[in-house]
Amino acid sequence: MADVAIRKPVLDGRLGGSANVRLTVAPAASRVALRAPMESLKALSSALGLSVPTAPKTSGRAGARSVLWIGPDEWLVIDEAGADLMAAFAGAGALHSATDVSHRNVAIIVSGPGAETTLAAGCPQDLSLAAFPVGAASRTILGKAEIVLLRTEADTFRVECWRSFSDYVFGLLAEAAGDAGH
């Protein structure tokens, strides 16, 4: 039996927050960066089992799977159940580009009554519920790091960042959560 190296997940065991905010590292998920022309979206939606959104700052969700609009022909697909998204795309029968980015990204869940304030400490975007409602998604920045932000509930956000920036992003969020707790 050969020795197998087991990689420790980035941010393994990290917790943070305050009385008003909880920071948790989301479990591993499958992720695909998707690019496609509009005429392919019907077939891709069928392959994914949910409608690929076409409007800025929106997302679609079915079960454990979400599709976030990132640009006019770009989406981030996240399957929290770890499904084989590449197999789903392989059978779509439509022009597209799908790149598995499961190991590139890490997600941090920011929840609680101070979640919006915590994120606003490093994100210039208007995160009020009126401007960024449940289901809203966007590529933006947090401090000096690019993130993809999804509002999953009125007081809960999913922050997707590259694993190489995850320590920085978690640290910034932890510091901001402490400030939001006062």
From TrEMBL:
One of its GO terms (molecular function) is sarcosine oxidase activity. It holds the Pfam family SoxG. SUPFAM superfamilies: Folate-binding domain. Signal peptide: none annotated. GO terms for biological process: sarcosine catabolic process. It comes from the Bacteria. This is Sarcosine oxidase subunit gamma family protein.
